[in-house]
C-alpha cells in the first residue's frame, strides 16, 4: 500500500457552498473534522466573511466537528484574521494545494474529541 503522503485526494462530494456542510451531513458521513479553504470559501473577493459563514461555523463546531484552515495564501495577516474572526485556533498558510502534504499536516493538527 502507498504511504499516505503519496496518495491523492479525490472528492466524495461536490457542494457549491461551505454552508451546505451541515452538522447532520457530517454526522451522516462520519465527518469529524473540516479542513477549510479561505478564498471564495470563507471570504469573498473583498476579504469579507461570506454571508452566513460566522453562524455556520459556530453551528458546526457546536455540533462537535473540528475545523482548521488550510490556505495556499502567503498573506498571514489575512488568514490569521479570518481564523480569529471565526475562533479557529489552527491555520496553515502557503499550503501548496493540491499537494497532499498540507492536508496530512492539517489532519494531524485536528484534535478530535473522543466520542
Ligand atoms: Mg479557494
Summary keywords:
115 residues; three-stranded parallel β-sheet; 4 helices; binds magnesium ion
Put simply, the count of helices is 4
CATH topology: Rossmann fold
Structural Rg: 14 Å
Shape: globular
Mean pLDDT: 91
Order of helices and strands: HEHEHEH
- Unreliable stretches (pLDDT < 50, length at least 5) are none
Could you tell me which ligands this complex binds, including any ions or cofactors?
Answer: magnesium ion
In short:
It is built from 4 helices and 3 strands; from the N terminus they run H-E-H-E-H-E-H.
Topology (elements, then pairings):
Blueprint: H1 23-28, E1 33-36, H2 53-62, E2 66-70, H3 76-86, E3 91-92, H4 100-109
Parallel strand pairs: 1-2, 2-3
Description:
This protein has helices at 23-28, 53-62, 76-86, 100-109; strands spanning 33-36, 66-70, 91-92. The N and C termini lie far apart (29 Å). The radius of gyration is 14 Å and the shape is globular. The mean pLDDT is 91. It contains 4 helices and 3 strands. β1 (33-36), α2 and β2 form a beta-alpha-beta unit. The protein has one domain (18-105): Rossmann fold, CATH 3.40.50.1000. The protein has a 3-stranded parallel sheet with strand order 1-2-3, sandwiched between helices. With 115 residues, it is an alpha/beta fold. The structure holds magnesium ion (MG). Magnesium ion binds next to loops.
